[in-house]
Amino acid sequence: MGFLVERGRLFGLATLAAALSLGGCLGGGPSGGDGPVAQAPATSAPVDAPNGNTGSIGSGSVKVALILPLTGQGQGAVAATSLRNAADLAVGEFQNADVAILVKDDRGTAEGARQAAEEAIAEGAELIVGPLFAPAVQAAGQVAKQAGKPVIAFSTDATVASRGVYLLSFLAQEEVDRIIAYASAQGRRSFAALIPENTYGNVVEAQFREAAARRGARVVAMERYAAGQAQAAVQRIAPLIVGPSAQADAIFLPDNAEGLPGVAQALAEARFDPQKVKPLGTGVWNDPRIFKTPALQSGWFAAPDSAGFNAFAARYRTRFNADPTRIATLSYDAVSLAAALVRTQGSQRFAEPVLTNPSGFSGADGVFRFKPDGTNDRALAVLEIRNGATATVSPAPKALSPSGT
Virtual CA dihedral for 387, 388, 389, 394, nearest 10 degrees? Predict the structure, then answer.
């Protein structure tokens, strides 16, 4: 049986419908982790703790480490503070949580993460939550594996996942699969793609090709472009997406709010019509700046449902008088899950069969499960951009199928 973590309580997934009727099950929003940290909203206020943001949260008997770049550079430190506060909120909302969260600063470096993991394990941590960035996850994971302790990390880089190092983040691969599956089900069979020339683009291109092939769809054109240089790529692909010779009925545009406006402008200049060729995106589209873009109106993208994050954010604001970063729910869910497993699973609380239970768990961002290879499956919604806002056109599933969402 899997479990539903719902504001400090634990339910079997068989009782999911009853739990939902209580109004406490939470759902989510855009992608997070290594890349989207740059999109973090307002700075969060830290909670009081010894040594700034380090120290301990809670006074339970089971120790869990939380490793974050609290004194790292730029938006990483902003996100870290928000993630720390979310952990504090989770402990406070879980009734009689028998956990003590040992907060460690990795300074935004791999070496700092290694040292933090060594300190935490020496202090008795049975589970490591975090780090945020891929090199830090890799370093902390090596230490944890040597000690036989699992890690629940926040990086979006699936290459750092492995047996015992589980990623709770929003992974691009899942979002690509969801949007291509939905578009195919709606009769879109010929895809074009404009993909940024970066690491994220490499990941989504590979998954896009695989997802299209799995659905028996054609990829009629694909172009890559460097940052700020989409015009030439759009000109090359335009004959296949505009006018009487157009062959594509959908175009995949997996760029974020920094890069996508330039792509959209070039498409508009080429007389692209989103009513004829459906724009498709991933969770990085879940940004108000993108919703106002004319060339993307009626476009579809995959992301967690937003209701849960909105409810979490309201409670966070009440507690800390600041907005959380979007990925703060990752820490909230990880700490809530740890507390729930401590309460229900005894000495096997963080054992691999428990953490990789195929029924999965549900928290602030909906239903998820850890796969044995360290990646995850998530229940994702499909949203449509309409008049500067979004509407759900395909809700996130309430449970995960045997093969994924």
Answer: 60
Q: Maximum distance among all alpha carbons in the chain? A: 69
Terminus-to-terminus CA distance in the chain, angstroms? 17
Convert the pLDDT of each residue in 78-135 to its tens digit.
999 999 999 999 999 999 999 999 999 999 999 999 999 999 999 999 999 999 999 9
| Tally: H helices and E strands in the chain | 12, 18
What does the alpha-carbon distance between residue 239 and residue 311 come to, in Å, rounded to a whole number? 45
Residue 399: count other Cβ atoms within 10 Å of its Cβ. 15
Starting at the earlier edge strand, list the strands of the sheet with 361-363. 9-12, 3-6, 361-363, 366-370, 376-378
How far is residue 187 CA from its own chain's centroid?
28
Give me 114's structure tokens.
Answer: 């290694």
Handedness of CA 336, 364, 67, 91 (dihedral sign): negative
Residue with tokens 């008088």: 321
Confidence bin at 401 (pLDDT 50/70/90)? confident
Residue 51, SS3 per DSSP: coil
- Phi, psi (rounded to 5 degrees) for 113: -65, -40
CB 308 within 8 A of CB 70: no
CA distance readout (Å), 390 to 18, 29, 250: 28, 11, 19
Q: Find out whether 263 and 234 touch, Cβ atoms under 8 Å.
A: yes
327 phi/psi in degrees, rounded to 5: -85, 5
